[in-house]
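Note to self: keep these together.
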Amino acid sequence: MIYIPDGVAKFAAAHNTSPVIAYAIFEMTTDVIEEERVWGRPTHAEVRTVLRRAWQLADPGQEAIYWNGCASRRINIIEQARSAAVAIGAS
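Structure:
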């Protein structure tokens, strides 16, 4: 697993989200407002991008990561992205 900066770790803890998901969100956004929007109301494309990146960052043995408490398991990431998008209300 990569080093997770303190601010990202705090965001993850406050949002019931895995640190690697928070890190991926922070990588693709430029400010707090966009971070919150991507976390809470992502598009389907953003969900796919975040999950792909988060799995790249995750430990190889890690079997699940969480976005707002919803699990994404190390299986077909495209299908997981669709399911996660629906579960978290992506537009």
